[in-house]
From TrEMBL:
Source organism (scientific name): Sinocyclocheilus grahami
Domain Importin-7/11-like TPR repeats span(s) in chain numbering: 9-43
This protein's name: Importin-7/11-like TPR repeats domain-containing protein
Length: 45
């Protein structure tokens, strides 16, 4: 990951603490996972 991507992900994770609704936390986590590249079949499943 580039420095910009790493910084963006760190900021995103820090802001997740401010989300109070469980549905929104799950949605935010799923959206974050889309941004994380992975070729591992285990992570994708």
């Amino acid at each position: 990951l580039t420095q910009l991507q790493t910084s963006s992900i760190e900021m995103w994770v820090d802001c997740m603490d401010n989300i109070t609704q469980p549905e929104r936390i799950k949605l935010s986590a799923l959206a974050l996972m889309v941004l994380l590249p992975s070729d591992s079949r285990f992570v994708i499943i």
